[in-house]
Amino acid sequence: MARSFQVTFVRSGKTLAVDETEGVLNAGLEAGLTLAYDCRKGRCKTCMVKVDGIIDQSEAWLISNEELADGYALICVGKPRSNLRVHA
Predict the structure, then answer these.
(1) Which range marks the domain in which residue 34 is found?
(2) H helices present in the chain, as ranges
(3) pTM of the predicted model, to two decimals?
(4) 38, 20 in Cβ contact below 8 A?
């Protein structure tokens, strides 16, 4: 059974329970949030935002180690590994 985490989208103030196998962008869109995105494959950086918490970026092609260290993530391919605060 997959775990779920609390993901708070800072701009809207909305908090969602997001399964560890679900993408953060997809969860936000399904909840009716307006979020920036384009490729949905981790290859364009349109969805890159600051994230507080642990988010899986193993499928993020274009994000640099420096951007990851600064707390940024590509939420189109990012899956929660802890409770998150997404600055979008």
Answers:
(1) 4-86
(2) 24-30, 65-69
(3) 0.94
(4) no
